[in-house]
Amino acid sequence: MLVLVLFNLAIGSVSVPLSVFLHFFDAHTVDNETVWRHIILESRLPQTVTAIIAGASLGLAGLQMQTLFRNPLAGPSILGISSGASLGVALLTMGSGVSSLFLSSSLMDGIGIHIAAFAGAFLILFIVLLAAKRVRNNASLLIIGIMVGYAVSSIIGLLNFVGQQGEVHAFVIWGLGSFANVQNSQLLLFAILVLPALFLSLLLMKPMNAMLLGDAYAQNLGINLKQIRWQLILLSGFLTAIITAYTGPIAFIGLATPHLARLLFKSSDHRQLIPAVILLGIVVALACNLLARLPLFQNVLPINVITSLFGAPLVIYLIVKQKQIGF
Amino acid sequence: MESKNLSIGYSKDNKPIIIQSDLNLQLKKGELCCLIGPNGVGKSTLLRTISKQLNKQKGDILINNLSINKYDFQALAKSLSIVLTDSIQVPNLKVRELVAMGRFPYTNFWGNLNKEDKEKVEESIQLLGLQPLTERNFIELSDGEKQKALIAKALAQDTPLILLDEPTAFLDFPSKMAILAELRKIAHNKNVAIILSTHDLELALKMADLIWLFPEKNNCKTGIPEDLVLSGDISKAFSSKILSFDLKTAHFSQRMETRDVVNVEGNSIEAEWLKRALVRKGISAIANKTNSYTAFYDSSTSKFMLQKENEIIVTFDRINDLLSEIENIN
């Protein structure tokens, strides 16, 4: 992992000489080196930290959804929360006829997008939590989440349809995800929002283990089903909402990391799985970020291209090799 | 455990649907109780009501003389454990890990096992004879082994009451016997009360200390198996147009229209199986000299014989040949 962090800092579309990179932490630098220094500190460092936080959170959120729904296909986006974020951003970028009246163009670029995504994601999370309170059955809740996702997607489709070409393009680019959208100045808030949710998730290892056996057995082992369901949706939804707001919807990591963890650690015990998905989520996110910026591509590739293009065959290979998969 | 004027059922569109009412049941520690009855009479509903997965509609259930209303989930987890037919599809769940899950109500915040927990787990594994399987994945076990592992888990939960929903479903006959014998041993030796629902009436009559019989409607009977058989309640509950219950052997047999009567002589094993074959074909086989046909088995030649009135005797190697001969004559 450390190696990946170093590579993430060292490699990019502007090549920084290795000697400079190695002497990076020496204070005495000449003019030429300050440019490189700037690239590393202001661009690659926040990007690396963002990848670490996002990878850990998405892996964990995916595991929480798979355990809650006892479904290997569940992921952080299953309840429509990332679609909600997309809706917020779509409204901002393509509903611009209205929004540009209120927002300055600089706000449209950076923080404005975070806020819009944030609002959209939390709106959907709120709807899902309301539904969770009314519906007792997890399968019904899952379907409600997916339906909300569809409904939101169709609104986005409509916005795409009426939007101007430039706006649609901007939205599509956002939808491809990026770890590079978080500035150093925003990093602290990002971490402060995410870390408590990560920590609270660690406290649910024992009840999550009981949930593997199904609702009836879990309840018979003394688990308060209502409470744990509420906690899992809230934590997973919160993590997904924050991450999507800052990086755009990141595909694949949240769905695949729990499977990687189960296959590699040969365990379904959450006392091992939770640290494992956090670790593997970080590794996968850093590796994808690195691949996206390898100098052999002319440009920096969107992160979702990498996660799905390289990740999917890897997971298929592992599944075929293991011949079994579960939640 | 006991129930007082208990009504069970479920709510549909906010209207209660009662399946059984006025249940006054009692079960003491150390007893194996079999819950029997046709499909849809509320066997599973009763078990789910006792374990508080369903709300009771009326009346009360007491465990250790305390109403289940007074138990929260954690207290209930230490008072009763369940074994269900729901399939568990967790990959990488070792048998020992599954049994250890029974210790959940007792372990600390992180779920770590202390010395006592580990001892209980090993004891349960040994009682069910699961030692060779402890490192195997649960989902790779046979149905019978899975059932045993789940019972071991319930046992590790260390509760005075164990509920099992259809533990013998999906098992072959020897495994059914083995599971029930195991459960009876546990009830008697560990002094726990066990309630299990089953469709295997003959097994239940043989193994249970107590029967709770749920016939079609609101007419629950309880008692030891023998009393319920003699009172006719068992045959009343299960007999139908096509099945009749034999009081002597506790077997069910198919009711058939009998067409012919064949006199079967002898008491050899072969003669008994010949009778069975004839009965299955709808031919009444009784020892009565006045019949037009007589069939018997000749042990010296190992052949089956058939004689019609005073005609010559026809011999057959197999029962099947004899049966087709009778069909031909008719």
Strand order of the largest sheet of chain B: 6-7-8-3-9-10
CATH fold-level assignment of the largest domain in chain B:
Rossmann fold
Helical stretch count of chain B?
A: 11
Number of domains of chain A: 1
Uncertain segments of chain B are none
CATH superfamily of the largest domain in chain B: P-loop containing nucleotide triphosphate hydrolases
State the share of residues found in helices of chain B, binned by percent: 25-40%
Strand residues, percent of chain B: 25-35%
Order of helices and strands of chain A: HHHHHHHHHHHHHHHH
CATH class of chain A: Mainly Alpha
Mean pLDDT score of chain A, rounded? 84
Mean pLDDT of chain B: 86
Percent of residues in helices of chain A comes to: over 70%
CATH topology of chain A: ABC transporter involved in vitamin B12 uptake, BtuC
What percentage of amino acids of chain A are in beta strands? under 5%
- Number of helices in the DSSP assignment of chain A: 16
Cα shape of chain B: elongated
- Please give the largest β-sheet of chain A: none
Give the tally of β-strands of chain A: 0
How is the topology of this model organized?
The complex is a heterodimer of chains A (327) and B (330).
Chain A lengths: L1 H9 L7 H5 L8 H39 L11 H14 L1 H7 L2 H5 L1 H24 L3 H25 L2 H11 L8 H19 L2 H7 L3 H6 L4 H23 L5 H13 L4 H23 L10 H20 L5
Helix pairs in contact in A: 1-3, 1-15, 3-10, 3-13, 3-14, 3-15, 4-5, 4-7, 4-8, 4-9, 4-13, 7-8, 7-13, 10-13, 14-15, 14-16, 15-16
Chain B lengths: L1 E11 L2 E9 L8 E5 L6 H8 L7 E6 L2 E2 L5 H5 L2 E4 L11 H7 L13 H13 L15 H14 L4 E5 L7 H18 L2 E5 L3 H7 L2 E4 L7 E3 L1 H6 L2 H6 L4 E4 L4 E4 L5 E5 L4 H12 L2 E3 L7 E6 L4 E6 L4 E4 L2 H11 L1
Parallel strand pairs in B: 3-8, 3-9, 6-7, 7-8, 13-14, 13-15
Antiparallel strand pairs in B: 1-2, 1-4, 4-5, 9-10, 11-12, 15-16, 16-17
Helix pairs in contact in B: 3-5, 4-5
